[in-house]
């Protein structure tokens, strides 16, 4: 509580008026104002009634040679003014209180405590609601505004002889979110903290996920093993292992060192045959020929076979067909070869149809002995229906990357009959590998890269 005291000794108040807005005298200018009197020129409450609730906005008080009036005001909930007022005057319901005796004004400002003002001013006058000043004295006026938490001066003391103005301003500090009872509600700081915490956690999780996905691609594919039984496979071919790799995507990021890692991984599985089912590169031979050179070190008992993917046609498929042949691989452009226990066929990619080099199933599969098991190499899974019509037992494909990035996998699943893994379509089985590399950003999320070793099983074994 703040207190201002300055009543000279021996001066007694003429009367008492404890209510704000109480009519205590005749209207008109006050008279007989002597030492030990104070004036509250205007006090308004939020409700327009005496002793109402509100908050102190501003006030001015005077000091005189007969007594010092000082004002000490912390942020206030209730305000009490006690002083000697003129014996006569006009007291309005909105707060004019030039009454005889001490006058009190009560109000509230959220988050503050009451103060008491007691003092004296000599030769004071009051200011009416219309702004007119009474004829007595020239010390000035003080205006108290109750019902707002803004701190701004609304009155100015008029200097008189021996009188110095004192300006009282309530600082803005009340919690604007406080309720009517002065209790502050939860501010935005907690919501801001929670939102920042959630955003930070999401960012950290996303960063960790992308980092792990990039590491998985750059570190090379893992080996996956699948057993596929074929009804027509002879017992002599039981356990035949085909290392299936697709979508290596050699380019500016995945270069020669990545190709070497893929070659080492494939050779470590000791396959009987290696099948590269498209999208080997993303560029010209002139730029990526050195990156592809490690493919010459691939080793399998029955050799390495290659079919084009859609990305080979972006830069010119024919140049890569010639390049892989020079590296010791066997390009399969709509052709078939007989291996011990089954026929191996390969078709060009659908992207080659614009260059008169699309898939030709009749050329690759027509006229063969249908009693023998057949395995088809085709880059895109979508040609499975052609494979079914031509009596293929197993189709090996890539292209999808398993979706590569979640949630892109949902879109890839809509465009392909099988996104990844082994599925059956009639008498034909389709296996789709997720691929060894990545296209675009070298990142995989929810679709780990792989090299799959498909082991053929005979039902006669």
List keywords for this structure.
disordered N terminus; 6-stranded mixed β-sheet; 8 helices; 19 strands; 461 residues; alpha/beta; single chain
Structure description:
The protein has 461 residues and is α/β, with parallel strands linked by helices. The chain has eight helices and 19 strands. A six-stranded mixed beta sheet has the order 8-19-9-10-11-12, covered by helices on one side. The protein has a six-stranded mixed beta sheet with strand order 13-14-15-16-18-17. Strands 1-5-4 form a three-stranded parallel beta sheet, with no helix packed on it. α2 (256-268) packs across α3. The longest helix has 31 residues, at 188-218. The radius of gyration is 47 Å and the shape is globular. The termini are far apart.
């Amino acid at each position: 509580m703040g207190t201002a005291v300055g009543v000279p000794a021996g001066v007694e108040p003429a009367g008492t008026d404890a209510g704000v807005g109480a009519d205590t005298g005749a209207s008109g200018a006050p008279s007989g104002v002597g030492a030990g009197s104070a004036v509250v020129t205007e006090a308004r409450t939020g409700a327009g009634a005496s002793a109402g609730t509100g908050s102190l906005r501003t006030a001015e008080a005077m000091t005189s040679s007969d007594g010092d009036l000082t004002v000490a005001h912390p942020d206030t909930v209730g305000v009490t003014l006690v002083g000697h007022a003129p014996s006569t005057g006009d007291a309005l319901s909105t707060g004019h209180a030039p009454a005889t005796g001490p006058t009190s004004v009560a109000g509230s400002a959220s988050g503050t405590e009451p103060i008491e003002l007691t003092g004296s001013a000599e030769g004071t006058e009051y200011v009416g609601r219309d702004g007119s000043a009474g004829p007595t004295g020239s010390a000035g006026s003080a205006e108290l505004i109750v019902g707002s938490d803004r701190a701004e001066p609304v009155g100015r003391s008029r200097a008189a002889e021996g009188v110095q103005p004192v300006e009282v301003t309530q600082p803005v500090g009340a919690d604007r979110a406080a309720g009517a009872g002065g209790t502050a509600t939860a501010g935005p700081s907690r919501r801001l903290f929670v939102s920042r915490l959630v955003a930070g956690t999401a960012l950290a999780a996303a960063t960790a996920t992308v980092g792990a996905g990039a590491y998985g691609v750059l570190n090379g594919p893992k080996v996956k093993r699948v057993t596929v039984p074929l009804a027509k496979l002879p017992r002599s071919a039981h356990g035949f292992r085909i290392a299936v790799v697709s979508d290596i995507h050699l380019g500016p990021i995945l270069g020669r060192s990545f190709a070497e890692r893929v070659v080492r991984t494939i050779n470590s599985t000791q396959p009987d045959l290696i099948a590269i089912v498209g999208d080997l590169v993303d560029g010209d031979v002139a730029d990526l020929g050195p990156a592809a050179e490690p493919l010459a070190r691939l080793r399998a008992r029955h050799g390495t076979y290659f079919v084009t993917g859609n990305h080979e046609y972006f830069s010119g498929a024919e140049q890569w067909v010639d390049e892989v042949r020079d590296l010791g691989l066997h390009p399969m452009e709509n052709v078939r070869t007989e291996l011990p226990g089954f026929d191996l066929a390969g078709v060009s990619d659908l992207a080659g149809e614009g260059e008169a080099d699309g898939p030709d199933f009749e050329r690759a599969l027509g006229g063969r002995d249908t009693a023998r098991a057949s395995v088809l190499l085709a880059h895109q899974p979508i040609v499975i229906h052609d494979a079914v019509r031509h009596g293929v037992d197993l189709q090996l494909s890539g292209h999808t990357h398993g979706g590569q990035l979640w949630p892109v996998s949902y879109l890839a699943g809509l465009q392909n009959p099988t996104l990844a893994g082994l599925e059956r379509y009639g008498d034909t089985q389709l296996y789709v590998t997720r691929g060894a590399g990545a296209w675009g950003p070298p990142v995989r999320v929810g679709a780990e890269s792989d090299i799959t070793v498909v082991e053929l099983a005979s039902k006669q074994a």
